[in-house]
Amino acid sequence: MQMLTPLPAEDWDDQARDALACTVAPERRNPADAGNALSTLVRHPVLAGRFLPFNSYLQQDSTLPDRIRELVILRTAFHHGCVYEWGHHSAMGRRLGLTEDDLTSAQTGSAADEFDQMVLDAVDELHSGSRISPLTWERLGTRLDDHQRMDLMFTVGGYGTLALALNTFDVQLEEGAGTDEFYATPAN
After folding, report:
1. Residue 81 backbone class (left: φ over 0; alpha: ψ -120 to 50; beta: rest)
2. Under a CB-based contact definition with an 8 Å cutoff, are residues 123 and 34 in contact?
3. Cys bridge to 166: 87, 116, 149, 171, which one at CB 3.0-4.6 A?
4. For 57-104, what is each residue's pLDDT tens digit?
């Protein structure tokens, strides 16, 4: 049973559209183009208006290299069993250079690349113990500065929180999501 459905079109109002204003292009601030996750989150426009800028920072302005950010999000989505996050971010990751082997690594937690393995280990530590160990923090520091390591940690937390919401509300992955064709359309 779906706990929350996307906000019906007839219930969209200025408050729902305003909740998306700081993160979503004007042409997507409507029930037909916002996608299932955003259309569900705007059921609570005050919360959405506060959470989405943080999520937008993590996705667009984080100091993490794009490829590493997507690897972190995918490992987090895998830990939470979040089909919605996995569907969208596996396609985003591919567009940013992740290979099928990288996607498999995000699922198994085992990477051939030493640095990717450090990143996956950090995500696993945060997921299982709510902290990055001093040794992993130090190892990450060989390639990431303090801001990037902080962004890594907050990316795990932010996308973990989003995964909890998407899973609890049973937000459905849009038809075609996870494919390049889906993201090539103007509405998405």
Report:
1. left
2. no
3. 171
4. 999 999 999 999 999 999 999 999 999 999 999 999 999 999 999 999
Q: Which of 24, 26, 92 is nearest to 53 (CA)?
A: 24
Q: What CA–CA distances, in Å, run from 69 to 6, 119, 184? A: 27, 10, 21
Tell me the CA distances in angstroms from 181 to 29, 41, 93, 186, 188, one per residue in order: 21, 25, 15, 11, 10
Which amino acid, 72?
V
pLDDT, tens digit (0-9, with 9 covering 90-100), for 168-186: 999 999 988 876 555 444 4
102 secondary structure, DSSP code: H
Res 8: pLDDT: 95
d(CA 154, CA 132): 12
Give the pair of three-digit tokens for residue 145. 């500065």
The dihedral of CA 14, 8, 56, 98: what is its sign? negative
Segment 23-69, tens digit of pLDDT: 899 999 999 999 999 999 999 999 999 999 999 999 999 999 999 99
| φ, ψ for residue 27, nearest 5 deg | -70, -10
Structure tokens at 75: 């490992």
- Amino acid of residue 97: G
Report the distance separating Cα 137 and Cα 133, nearest Å: 6
CA dist 88 and 90 (Å) reads 6
